[in-house]
């Protein structure tokens, strides 16, 4: 499959990971990368909307790690894909309803 070279933002995906990290007492991107066993550059690309593709294994590792941090901090929250990125059309619908 040929790569288009387009990033998340070109497909109207809006990164929400930075907001999620703030909820977790300013958890750093690097700390998330280390615990999730994901390259720091991958986390940075996702958080900045520059990622061109996201592997499901990577996405799962990030979500599981966010949930582990939340549990350790005593937060009653389960993180999901929408805490990493959302589609612009969904966001528009969410805030217009």
TrEMBL record:
It comes from the Bacteria. This is Helix-turn-helix domain-containing protein. It comes from Bacillus vallismortis. SUPFAM superfamilies: lambda repressor-like DNA-binding domains (SSF47413). One of its GO terms (molecular function) is DNA binding. InterPro entries: Cro/C1-type_HTH, Lambda_DNA-bd_dom_sf.
């Amino acid at each position: 499959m040929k790569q288009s070279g387009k990033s998340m933002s070109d497909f109207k995906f809006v990164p929400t990971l930075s907001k999620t990290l703030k909820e977790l007492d300013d958890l750093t991107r690097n700390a998330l990368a280390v615990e999730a066993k994901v390259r720091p550059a991958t986390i940075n690309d996702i958080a900045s909307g520059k990622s061109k593709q996201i592997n499901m294994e990577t996405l799962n590792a990030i979500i599981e790690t966010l949930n582990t941090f939340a549990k350790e901090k005593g937060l009653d929250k389960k993180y999901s894909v929408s805490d990493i990125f959302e589609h612009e059309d969904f966001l528009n619908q969410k805030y217009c309803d």
